[in-house]
């Protein structure tokens, strides 16, 4: 009987090359801008959901921690699944990341994508990938992208009900061998999460409107670069989008400074490497980690370059990952 309400899924983390920052609607979590990302093969979340008629509240156990009452964000997410399936039971969520949680390595992306897939299957629903993307978005904007592998484009959408704010795959992982090497600087939880940071930027950063207005052109250029398999163009756009987003973050009140000393040192090191002829481009999210986009042949050069930066504690080399999928 219990098995009937149980399912597990794995979803892979993704890193945006054209960034998402800002919401056009908070309640449905609709992004103010579209985005373009690379799903990663080696960083993932495994999530098991078991709906249980005997439970009076949702429970969650993250990694090896004991189960506790699920925070509102997770319960509200499960409510969406309960509404769609008509099944009212509370659930146990058990989730494990094979990388540090909430430290700018996109754990909410893989976490909510895996939860969307596991919870809907446990509730007896068979959603299409697009429907799953729309559902995952309501947990975390970047999670909408982790439903798919390879290069993924997230639509901002225009509709108020959010039905056109979903991600879609634009280049499967085996169609263009892209690599990403991550320099880990600090794995402690970040001080200001993305949701609060975005709220602050929209309310106070003087460039917020320009950020939103200029993003459509970046996204279209990114899409064209992917279509043409133009690595240089995609890399240049990625670095630009990252720096533009961090410019906006810095101009937010209170200023959002996600970089640490080694992050900045690594940015310069990657630019110096590029000046010597190795094509590598950095991107950074709401945390101090640096992520470097490069081609397979440059794996060693990029890893050596990051390793030489004081304060980079760990290097993780990864390439393009697959779609989210059920686990047995
Ligand atoms: C900087 O998807 O974590 O990583 O929708 O509020 O959960 P919420 O935000 P989240 O934001 C990601 C921001 C980013 C850029 C990106 O991934 O596009």
3D architecture notes:
The protein is α+β, with helices and mostly antiparallel strands and 328 residues long. The chain is built from eight helices and 14 strands. Strands 1, 4, 5, 6, 7, 8, 9 and 14 form an eight-stranded mixed beta sheet that branches. The chain has a four-stranded antiparallel beta sheet with strand order 11-12-10-13. Strand 2 and strand 3 form a beta hairpin. Helix 5 packs antiparallel against helix 6 and helix 7 packs across helix 8. The longest helix has 20 residues. Ligand DP6 binds next to helix 4.
* Computed structural class: alpha+beta
Share in helix: 25-40%
- Give a short account of the largest sheet: 8 strands, mixed
Number of strands: 14
List of distinct ligands in this structure: ligand DP6
The string of secondary-structure elements, in order, is EEEEEEHEHHEEEHHHHEEHEE
Count of separate DSSP helical elements: 8
What separation lies between the terminal Cα atoms?
17 Å
In quaternary terms, these chains amount to single chain
pLDDT averaged residue by residue: 95
Secondary-structure blueprint:
Elements: E1 6-18, E2 23-25, E3 30-31, E4 35-52, E5 59-62, E6 68-69, H1 72-85, E7 90-97, H2 107-122, H3 129-137, E8 151-154, E9 167-171, E10 179-184, H4 194-204, H5 208-227, H6 231-250, H7 261-275, E11 280-283, E12 290-294, H8 299-307, E13 314-319, E14 325-327
Parallel strand pairs: 5-7
Antiparallel strand pairs: 1-4, 1-14, 2-3, 4-7, 4-8, 5-6, 8-9, 10-12, 10-13, 11-12
Helix pairs in contact: 2-3, 5-6, 7-8
